[in-house]
Amino acid sequence: MSSGVAARRDAKKLVRSPSGLRMVPEHRAFGSPFGLEEPQWVPDKECPRCMQCDAKFDFITRKHHCRRCGKCFCDRCCSQKVPLRRMCFVDPVRQCADCALVSHREAEFYDKQLKVLLSGATFLVTFGDSEKPETMVCRLSNNQRCLVLDGDSHREIEIAHVCTVQILTEGFTPGEKDIHTYTSLLGSLLASEAGSTRATGMLLQYTVPGAEAAAQLRLMAGEDASGSKRQAAAWLAAMHKATKLLYESRDQ
Questions:
Q1: Which residues pair with residue 150 across a beta bridge?
Q2: What residues form DSSP beta bridges with 21?
Q3: Is-contact 245 34, C-beta < 8 A?
Q4: Which of 75, 175, 190, 206 has the fewest CB atoms within 10 Å distance of its CB?
Q5: 83 pLDDT exceeds 80?
Q6: 136-163 b/e with 16+ CB inside 10 Å = b?
Q7: Strands of the sheet with 134-140, listed across from one edge
Q8: % the chain with pLDDT above 70
């Protein structure tokens, strides 16, 4: 990729919306696949009462819109200002209690799991029907749009093209899962090494422009070093969270 194309992909701009300042990609096509669009606000004339506690709005009880769901609430039900990174807000924004709880949980992905994905981990990688695996480092690209695999060869797979995921664990053999049912594997993915199951690998199916059938990629943690295996297991757990967010973005 040329430096000019890379610069355009990473370029960002500051925009102001009714909800606050946002630092967004200069080109919409280069936005993070984990991002969420700002919701349409419920019109003021359609919400004479708080949509949580049913308090009537007046000169004393003012209405506020949750920046995540767009619904109307009184100050008591929508008082928290919480970071909302999936919508690229620069500062914490007002959210209702339910949305604030979700945003707090998602903050863990950006503070912890995203760093793990960007750092990468070493896997034995098999493409398609090949019988010979290749040792490669798999990581998430800086713009969060691609899985980058580096070894003797170099591959990039767009996250948005991943359509099917299968998790391989010790003590558990899952069936094929599409991205809609991926979250059912949370327990096995996040199990500690001392638990009954631990993620050891992952199968991905992804679409390739111009190809009729989906391509397949298999990642397996190596057996050479315990530190490497722990890093690979942590990367798989982080990838689980990323895929869950990806599904939510598509379902918006």
A1: 137, 154
A2: 16
A3: yes
A4: 175
A5: yes
A6: bebbbbeebbbbbbebeeebebebebbe
A7: 154-158, 146-150, 134-140, 121-127, 215-221, 199-206, 162-169, 177-178
A8: 80
Q: Report yes or no: 235 and 117 within 8 Å, Cβ to Cβ.
A: yes
DSSP labels, 193-248: TTSS--EEEEEEEE--TT-SSPEEEEEEE-SS-HHHHHHHHHHHHHHHHHHHHHHH
Cut 0.85: pTM above it: no
Burial class (CB in 10 A: 0-12, 13-18, 19+), 2: exposed
Alpha helices of 1-155 — where are they, by DSSP H? Answer: 3-10, 97-108, 114-119
Residue 154: its H or E element: strand 154-158
Tell me how far apart the terminal alpha carbons of the chain are, to the nearest angstrom: 31
CA distance 89 to 37: 11
Given pLDDT bands bounded at 50, 70 and 90, which one contains residue 249?
low
Pairing type for strands 121-127 and 93-95 reads unpaired
The answer to whether 54 touches 71, Cβ cutoff 8 Å, is no
Q: How far apart are CA 70 and CA 65, in angstroms?
A: 6
- Supply the pLDDT for residue 175: 45
pLDDT at residue 211 in the model: 85
Q: Mean pLDDT over all residues of the chain?
A: 82
